[in-house]
Structures are given as C-alpha cells and as structure tokens.
Design a protein that fits this description.
heterodimer; A: six-stranded mixed beta sheet; 10 strands; B: mainly alpha; ABC transporter involved in vitamin B12 uptake, BtuC; globular
C-alpha cells in the first residue's frame, strides 16, 4: 500500500515518487515519479490502457498502490470521474446529489447554490433525473459536485469525452475561468493533444515501456509520441508549445 | 394485545423494506436481493433440525452469508449479483436437503401465528436499527451508488459502507422470515421500491412511495387475509405487485394526458 501523506514543500501541490499499481498479475503503473506545482495544470496523456484513470484513482486513494503520494497540507480534492454508467430512469436529481454531498461533507446548503452558479447550471436541469441530463449538463453537474466544499485540487478524467465541439469548448472555458478565479491545481486526463498545448503547464505521458514527464515541449516530441501511440499518430507542434 | 403488536412490527418491517429496497433497485440489486433471502434457508433448516428458534437460525445464516458475499466480492472482484447467485443456489440446495414437508413450507412462506414475545422484541429492535441506519447513511449510499470513487474522495469508507448496507439488507430479510417467509420477503423489499422508482421524480418522492406502498400492502394484506381465508404473506405480496401494475397504468395515462 502506498503512503499517502501531506507534503511540506511550499510550492508543490503534489509529489509522487516510485508509484506502482498492480492488479493481480498485471502491472498497470510502474515506478512513476512526478510533481505538480500549486495552481498549475498537469495534463496526463497516453494510449488506451496506459493506466491514466488508474493513476487518478490511486491519487484519490481508491485503488491500492505502492510508493509515495504526498499532497500539500490542507489539500481538498475535487474529483470528476469519467462518464458514469447510470440508469436513465434513476429517480435522483442533480439537487439530490449535491445535497447528499453537502450532508456528507458537512458543507452549508448555500454551497449547493454557489457551486451551481459557478458551473452555470440552473433549473429545470437541476430538478430533472440525472440520467436524463445531456452530456454537457451532466459534466457541469459533476463539476459542481467536485467544486462544493471548495477544493484546492481538481482531478478531471476526460472532461469532454462524448461531448460535441461547442460543449467541449464550454467545459474547457469553464475550467480555465475556475482555475483563474480560484487558483485551482488541476490534473486532467485528455486524449486530445490540442488540449495539452492549450492548457498544460506540465505533461505526463503514460506509455510502455516508460513514462515521460516535463513541459509540453519536452514531452510532446515526435519520438516520444511515436513510442507512446505507435506510428499512426498525426501531430504538429504549435508555436506556443513551450509556454 | 398480540394482534396490535404484530401489526406494529409488520409495519416497521415494511418501512425498513421500502428504505432498503429503494437503494437496492437503484443499485440494480433486485435479483440479488431475492437470492440473498434464500441464504436464510439453511439456517432455518438447522434450527428446525436442532429445535431452536428458526428466526435465530435464519438471522445467523443471513449474517454469515452477508459476510461471505462481501468478502468474496472484494477478494475476487466478481460482481455482487454473481456471488449472491452462487451462494443462493448452494444455500437453497443445502436447506432443501436438511428440511422437508410442512417445515419447509413454513420456512418458505412464513407463519405469523408462530411468533413469540422474544420474536416481537427482536423484530422491533432490528427494524428500528435498520431504519435509523438507512436514514443516517442515505447521503453516503446515494453518492456511493452514483460512483464509489466520488464517495472515496469524501472520505467514505466504501467497503465498510457496502458491508453495513448488506447487513441492513440481511436484517430486513430476517425481519420478514416470520411474517412472509424466505421466499416472499425479498419481494417486499423489491416490488414497492420498484413502484417508487417508476413513479418517483426525486429520491425523496421515490422513498416515500416505496415505504407507503410496502406499509399499505402489509396493512391491507394483514387485514384482508383472515376475511378471505388466505395466508397473509402471499396476499401482502400480491397486493404490492398489484400496486406496481396499477402504477404502470397510472403513469402511462398521465403521460398521455401530458401529450394531448
């Protein structure tokens, strides 16, 4: 079992050292080390099956791991999982879900209203069963859920999977605004390399046999991407890649 | 007055069934719950064989079965439904080997007349315990059914919560052993909750409908059984199922009205 402790280092929101995750005989993550500065954005990329979601789940303590995971003292996590498998007719409204979180985390009921305002989700969407929400509405609801009780770190697993282009832009615009207003540290899984160029301060590319960590310019080289994704990947380097 | 006492326990048991069932159907555990109820059978059979209280035997088997289901699920990562399915078949087979005839029928369908004062006190305390747990843990259970990972980020101990919920489930089945028997108690958990899920538009309305439907069926079944000359347990379930079918028609008509 990995050690999940608070880090005393002042600028680091998260330090991970020698992290490994095994499922029975399958090693999903091996000897992974990286760090995330406070208020910055780390984008995690990699091919399907590279262990991106497993990494986020290890960071929130949901799967057993070996190695060290050190969060800054006082860290509050907000997690937005990948698309959830929910019954369409589940009689559970967005408000039900947010009130349940307020109850469990001991937050004031006013935080439900604040979070919904932040993500710009309003009635009647909040009073409809969550299974009947559109993809974009549901993502906003999950984001509102994560933002309640004022997290310092947001972990976001493929925020725009299954969304159309306008909804995708809306979610990223929202993320950028929230990060600016609340100085959130963000860990983001994405399949879209354009997202990496636009949003990442650092990139973690999970692939076999090794992972790469560094600035977008350091990690997103043709050689690294070919090693991670095979020969089929098409890419071009943006002029502002090294921002 | 014994009849009033039995009625109070039956209503309390129904309320517990409605609350436990509403989470079960939302977690897609409807079939699993029916199967789990059969896990009580070997315990009832052992009790009949060694002449001790069949309810105690059933409770013991359910608690052991619950721990087995929970441990197997977490150790093997086989889904709860599959694990319970295996245990259920084994339990039914073992129970059938150990008991027979009238005893088996009583264990399967229940016999209210056989309830003792000890049963009554145990029933009242157990039902109160289940109801208090379901009300207090409602928010955690709701978040857990949406996503176990979301619950983890809030500091919820998900394996422990799962175990406590399965125990609440098992205790609710145990509550109904005397009144409805092994076969029918799973139905009182699932049918009213399904009615609630179909008619409810929010968690609150679903649970109110589930509890009201379970309590109404129990009340009507208990009152009508002696007059109609039927056994109480099966009649309660027939009424609950009728309410479900009526709800299907009611919802369809209300939709048609909305469309015209």
């Amino acid at each position: 079992m990995s050690e999940i402790v608070s880090t005393p280092e002042t600028e680091r929101a998260l330090v991970v050292e020698h992290l490994s995750v095994d499922f029975d005989d399958l090693q999903v993550l091996r000897d992974l080390s990286f760090s995330v500065d406070r208020g910055s954005t780390l984008v995690i990329i990699g091919p399907n099956g590279a262990g991106k979601t497993v990494l986020l789940r290890a960071l929130i303590g949901s799967v057993q791991s070996q190695g060290t995971i050190r969060w800054e003292p006082g860290t509050r996590l907000g997690y937005v999982p990948q698309k959830l498998d929910l019954q369409r007719n589940l009689p559970l409204t967005g408000l039900d879900l947010l009130h349940a979180k307020a109850h469990v985390s001991g937050s004031a009921e006013s935080e439900v209203v604040d979070a919904l305002q932040l993500v710009e989700l309003v009635a009647p969407a909040t009073e409809r069963p969550i299974g009947s929400l559109s993809g974009g509405e549901f993502q906003r609801l999950l984001l509102a859920f994560a933002l309640m009780s004022r997290p310092t770190v947001l972990l976001f697993d493929e925020p725009t999977a299954g969304l159309d282009e306008p909804s995708t832009h809306a979610v990223y615009d929202l993320l950028r605004r929230l990060q600016r207003e609340q100085n959130l540290t963000t860990l983001l899984i994405s399949h879209e390399l354009s997202v990496v160029y636009e949003h990442a301060d650092k990139v973690l590319c999970l692939s076999h046999p090794r992972a790469y960590f560094g600035s977008p310019a350091e990690v997103l080289t043709p050689d690294h991407l070919r090693e991670a994704y095979g020969g089929g990947v098409r890419f071009h380097i943006h002029d502002d890649a090294g921002r | 007055m014994p009849a009033a006492r039995e009625l109070v326990i039956a209503l309390e048991m129904s309320a517990a069934a409605g609350l436990v069932g509403s989470i079960a159907v939302m977690r897609r555990m409807a079939l699993a719950s029916d199967a789990l109820s059969h896990v009580a059978l070997p315990g009832v059979a052992l009790a009949l064989l060694f002449h001790f209280d069949p309810v105690l035997g059933g409770v013991a088997a359910l608690v052991v079965g619950t721990f087995l289901v929970w441990a197997l699920e977490y150790r093997t990562r086989i889904p709860t439904e599959a694990v319970i399915g295996v245990l259920f078949s084994a339990a039914l087979a073992i129970g059938s080997l150990m008991t027979s005839g009238e005893d088996l029928l009583e264990a399967l369908l229940g016999n209210v007349a056989a309830a003792s004062t000890f049963d009554a006190v145990l029933g009242l305390a157990t039902a109160a315990l289940v109801i208090v747990f379901m009300v207090r843990a409602r928010s955690r259970l709701v978040i857990r059914l949406v996503s176990a990972d979301l619950a983890e980020t809030l500091g919820v101990n998900v394996p422990r919560l799962d175990l406590l919920y399965l125990l609440a489930f098992a205790l609710t089945i145990a509550l109904g052993l005397r009144y409805l028997g092994v076969l029918l108690m799973g139905s009182l958990i699932i049918i009213p909750a399904t009615t609630g899920m179909y008619l409810g538009r929010s968690l609150r309305s679903m649970q109110i409908i589930a509890v009201a439907s379970a309590m109404g069926s129990t009340l009507a079944g208990t009152a009508l059984a002696p007059r109609l000359g039927f056994a109480g347990g099966p009649l309660i379930i027939v009424i609950a199922a009728s309410l479900f079918f009526v709800s299907l028609l009611g919802r369809r008509q209300s939709r048609q009205r909305q469309l015209t």
